[in-house]
Amino acid sequence: MKKTILITGSTDGIGLETAKMLLTQGHHVLLHGRNPAKLADAEKTLSALAQGEPVESYIADLSSMADVDALAKAVAEKHAHLDVLINNAGVFKTPKPITQDGLDVRFAVNTLAPFLLTQKLMPLLGASSRVVNLSSAAQAPVVLEALAGRAM
Ligand SMILES: NC(=O)c1ccc[n+]([C@@H]2O[C@H](COP(=O)([O-])OP(=O)(O)OC[C@H]3O[C@@H](n4cnc5c(N)ncnc54)[C@H](OP(=O)(O)O)[C@@H]3O)[C@@H](O)[C@H]2O)c1
């Protein structure tokens, strides 16, 4: 059965490979990225696999909670239902550790953004919908200095 699946961070790595696989299986995949050029490249590559169906893509910088909110609204404007939300986007190392809101960028992107996006998209998720969260052992330790953006 064809499913509608949103994958955050689908311009690279695991997200991009997952999008390719799911599109090849005939699912309707909603791509997400923060870099317009990378997103356009991914959209072009994936359109070739999409069996004639247009590939949708959404831009949002998940280190900004305003962008997370806008992403959820943009998806909800086009879709009444999501079968799967894959919270894949993540950041490990970054040269700029503090977001414009004064948050640690890794905590914002890896923890706050998936929580907020899932919460905002709850009205689109039914009893049989699924939320998949990717994480990393590198995100397991709680270092208060790092959460405040003062340590790498
Ligand atoms: N690779 C591993 O060995 C490994 C191991 C354990 C867990 N994981 C987890 O698996 C997930 C994917 O990892 P990956 O290795 O495939 O990562 P990746 O290749 O670095 O790709 C990460 C994706 O997230 C996007 N992203 C990063 N920061 C963002 C932001 N502020 N706003 C919006 N999008 C953002 C990236 O967009 P840009 O292209 O614009 O940067 C990219 O599309 C992560 O959650 C990671 O913690 C990975």
Question: Structural class of the secondary structure composition?
Answer: alpha/beta
Number of helices: 5
Heteromolecules bound: NADP nicotinamide-adenine-dinucleotide phosphate
Helix content: 25-40%
Main β-sheet, spatial strand arrangement:
3-2-1-4-5
Alpha carbon gyration radius: 15 Å
- Overall 3D form: globular
Quote the beta fraction: 15-25%
Average per-residue pLDDT, rounded, comes to 92
Series of secondary-structure elements, N-terminal to C-terminal: EHEHEHEHEH
Largest sheet: 5 strands, parallel
* Count of distinct strands: 5
Question: pLDDT below 50 for ≥5 consecutive residues: which ranges?
Answer: none
Q: How widely separated are the two ends?
A: 44 Å
Summarize this structure briefly.
With 152 residues, the protein is of the alpha/beta class. It contains 5 helices and 5 strands, in the order βαβαβαβαβα. The protein has helices spanning 13-24, 36-47, 65-78, 105-121, 144-147; strands at 4-7, 28-33, 56-59, 82-87, 125-133.
Could you characterize the architecture of this molecule?
The chain has helices at 13-24, 36-47, 65-78, 105-121, 144-147, and strands at 4-7, 28-33, 56-59, 82-87, 125-133. By secondary structure, the chain is an alpha/beta fold. The longest helix is centred in the last third of the chain and has 17 residues, at 105-121. Bound molecules: NADP nicotinamide-adenine-dinucleotide phosphate.
Helix and strand layout, with pairings?
Blueprint: E1 4-7, H1 13-24, E2 28-33, H2 36-47, E3 56-59, H3 65-78, E4 82-87, H4 105-121, E5 125-133, H5 144-147
Parallel strand pairs: 1-2, 1-4, 2-3, 4-5
Helix pairs in contact: 3-4
The structure holds NADP nicotinamide-adenine-dinucleotide phosphate.
Residues 9, 11-15, 33-35, 38, 61-63, 88-91, 109, 134-136 line the site of NADP nicotinamide-adenine-dinucleotide phosphate.
